Amino acid sequence: MKHLQRRFRREFDRVLRECMSAEIRRCTLTIWLIVTCVIATLSPAIAQTQNASVKNDDNQLAEILVRAQRRSENIQDAPLSVAAFTESTLRSAGVTVVSDLGELDSTLQFSAIGGIATVFMRGLGNPVATSGNEASVPMYIDDVYYSRLSPSFFDLSNINNVEILKGPQGTLFGRNASAGVISIYTRDPGNTPVIEGRVGYGNYATATAQLYASVPITDRLAADISLSEYNQASGWGRNVLDGDKTYLNYFFNARSKIIWNPTESTTVKVIGYYIEQNSLQGILTTPYAGTLGGGVDNSGTITVPPVPPQQRFYDINLDRVPRVSTETYGGSIRVDQELGFGEFSSISAARKTNESYLTDGDLTPFPLAIIDARPVDQQYSQELQLKSKHGAPLSWIGGFFYLNTLGGYNPIHIHGDSSIAQGINSVNLMGEQRLNSFAPYGQVTYPILPDTNLTAGVRYNKDDLRGFGSTTIYTYPGGPLSGLGPSFSGAPPFDRTRRFGKLTYKVGLDHHFNPSVMTYASVSTGYKSGTYNAVSIGSGALEPETVTTYEFGLKTELLDHRLRLDGAVFRNNVKDPQVQSSQMGIETVINAGSARSQGVEVESTAILAQGLTARLSATYLQAEFLDFSDAPYFYQRPGGGNGLGSINARGKVLPRSPRESIDAGVDYVVDVSSVGKFAFDTNVAYSSKFYWDSDNVISEGPLTIVNASATFTPRRAEALSIRLWVKNLTNKQYYSIEYEEQGPAGFAASPAAPRTVGGEFRFKF
Hints:
By secondary structure, the chain is mainly beta.
């Protein structure tokens, strides 16, 4: 044991000297030394405890099963950095939608723009949510890939568990998984009827209701349904121009699953869903604190007074209140067939979203630029898998993935007093892209020694991408351009095709010192496809973003399964990262040259005493551009609003990459025999200063968010419970999103939620 530890320590130190900065190396070596000493000291006791102790579920951490390698396994045996949360853990911590996951996992930065979810992981991500542009951290729900989703889609009313896979997953998940993957698994209907639900009420006139029902129809057929509604009827502030409420939010989710077992070896799952959202949140509404909007409009013909942020943080001053409405429906069919030598799976899925996006493009009380967009968003996917049986000496999986998407805008209508050029009444932009993506893949794990495994995988991604669109300009009657007619083409119609191909791979080695201590090292690659900017389709396609990651990790379960302590050191080398820019007040994407993110992360869960559990997630991150010679640089004009230039962003910090992030929580359950059970949970999420954009002009300061809840379940009615909760306990005022814009909009932002409090009544039969 000691010999192996010293050997791994020497190899680890050599890799660090070659790969890591001095600061991260010192931090990592300190952590590694502490962990190694603890393991070396406790190894004999651990081994004896493993053999002699009797398992006591009340005083031991529950086993967590994950499907990070597309098959079920203990999270401590998975040779990659992965965090997993059950439904009960999420509920206790106050995580009711997946966008709150950043409060439990320190590697995540989760927000929404224009009603669409955006995710950053380990400093990598893509903040632009324009239709057709897919995320660098893809979402999977029940093993189905989703290219673009609203946060309301991730309501946790029927969630079984959530897995966060960190680092490129370019082999088994592939599609755009250059930074990581978030996998969500919903509950399966079982053989016992279940009815459970929640009704709640909170400040800002927020009413919530959830219902889950499951019933066995026959011994081979079962079905369930999940319904959820959220209605925030009172705003966080008001629009000072007309007194209207701001930042309202409403969504409704319906989801159903049917499971049929026609034979002992065949399982068919059919899933259908419908989601509706009407929201005034997560949309640019105000100048960032300390900046001014207004000034001269984009045509240079109209000057308006400077527009500062309102004195009340949640008030706005706009002639048009931004809003987004979405309606999404779709479904999937999965067939699993056990074979004599393995298992075969087929996963077919389709989705379509109807969406309307209205925003004040100038963010002033003057009608300079009103943007009315109609996104196009639909997809179809088919995946085939063949894998070895569970427990086979050689673990292998092979498959084929196909994706067809149509995304873009038809149209974006921009109009106003004189927002574009003199004599122009309005502009219609139409830009769409059709994608056909094909990817065969395979991965194998071979035990080269009794406690040592070698994993190797490969995937070939082939993308055929067609971009097409046009621009139509409408003139003022009698104006200087009226001689061109009531309308004319601003540019020739665009219709081009690009093809991209990329081989991604993974090679890893893991070793179990004993059943409770495992270490691993891996090299993996990720790929985010090239894309057209649907809002400026004529600018051509971007190059793909590629990531190569080196990772070394340690997983331990100590003190008779009372302490789970995992850690990882990583380095991401990024080529052609896709980053944010802006055109006509609408977000676009451009390629930078190269970037790097590297750091250390630690995850831990511990049972401190009977009923008392603590959790910790901490990340130290360094993320910077290595090559970005023509980065957009936005600066404040003297009269308000922004001008646009360019800078060399080499050495600038990657957007949304705080140096330190710490999420910590405590859950305490006490059973009072004559009364009932009380459960208390507190969660604290801290992040240090980070920059919103590539030019590092606007930053969000250090932030600490505290959530807490208390639940009571009476002894004589254990099917019922009452829960009181508070989010953002200290009422911190901060922003959920910021974008740089050229013109009157300036540094545009949207605030995050203030302190919210409420209660809910739960029942289960």
